[in-house]
Automatic annotation (TrEMBL):
Highest taxon of the lineage: Eukaryota
A Gene Ontology cellular-component term: non-motile cilium
PANTHER family: NEPHROCYSTIN-4
Protein's GO biological process: negative regulation of canonical Wnt signaling pathway; protein localization to ciliary transition zone
Full protein name: Nephronophthisis 4
Lineage, broadest ranks: Eukaryota, Metazoa, Chordata, Craniata, Vertebrata
Organism: Mola mola
Signal peptide residue numbers: none
Length: 242
């Protein structure tokens, strides 16, 4: 017989798992179009976030996280799950994130992009935090030919005024934030092929997240747990695949 306390703990654990893995599905039309263009298998990618330059942000008592979400430009639809970085402090009008993210997707279409938003967090008198969008940018992932490999390499993205919600309103005028940009690197990551079944498609994850079924490796090579009874959690997963 299961004790009431054990049942409550079990429910809390399942609720936590559900909330952590909940994501928004992509548009059905996009999934259908990808299938018609034979983009049926998911491919892995690595996104390295570097430095953000924002000259106009105040440097006193302000920290800033980045938020990233996948977006379909043709159907104006955010999908997947928003990833949030830890807030970082500004120094000399620059914010260094040094984060490496991973994701896999079969929607290798020009309409699939990553939206990045910079949010400044300032303290309120009551101790809470006030968030203010400082600009956003779009990272294009694929070329105009779906059968071609994803464009990869170093990118310098300009930040635009306003909120990413303006992408849902085509009549809103697009204006850039003068002198503000974000440096990042996007590239294919074949090492994910053997482990992408362990986390959902179209969901961004960082290398230090706990992924059931993966074990930390001192060599930097992903270890997949073959145990049927217990999933291995790792505090720092390395997915270099080298």
């Amino acid at each position: 017989m299961v004790k009431t306390e054990d049942e409550s703990t079990s429910k809390d654990c399942w609720r936590e798992v559900f909330e952590r893995n909940r994501s928004v599905p992509p548009p059905r039309q996009t999934v259908r179009l990808a299938a018609e263009r034979h983009c049926t298998h998911s491919e892995g990618f690595q996104l390295s976030l570097g430095r953000v330059s924002v000259p106009r942000l105040p440097e006193v008592s302000v920290t800033a996280p980045l938020r990233l979400t996948l977006f379909d430009r043709d159907h104006k639809h955010f999908f997947g799950k928003t990833w949030r970085s830890q807030p970082q402090k500004m120094k000399n009008n620059r914010i260094s994130f040094s984060e490496v993210l991973y994701f896999h997707t079969s929607l290798r279409l020009p309409s699939t992009v990553v939206v990045l938003e910079l949010v400044s967090m300032s303290p309120r008198p009551d101790g809470s935090q006030h968030g203010l969008g400082e600009g956003f940018s779009l990272l294009e992932l694929f070329t105009t030919r779906p059968e071609a490999p994803a464009a990869d390499g170093n990118r310098r993205l300009n930040l635009h005024h306003g909120s990413p919600r303006s992408l849902l309103h085509p009549l809103v005028k697009d204006t850039s934030v003068e002198g503000a940009h974000l440096d990042c690197v996007i590239k294919p990551h074949p090492a994910l092929n053997s482990v992408m079944h362990l986390f959902p498609e179209n969901v961004l994850v960082s290398g230090d997240e706990n992924i059931p079924g993966l074990a930390a490796s001192p060599t930097g090579i992903t270890n997949v747990s073959r145990s049927k009874n217990k999933a291995i959690h790792s505090p720092a997963i390395k997915w270099n695949g080298s």
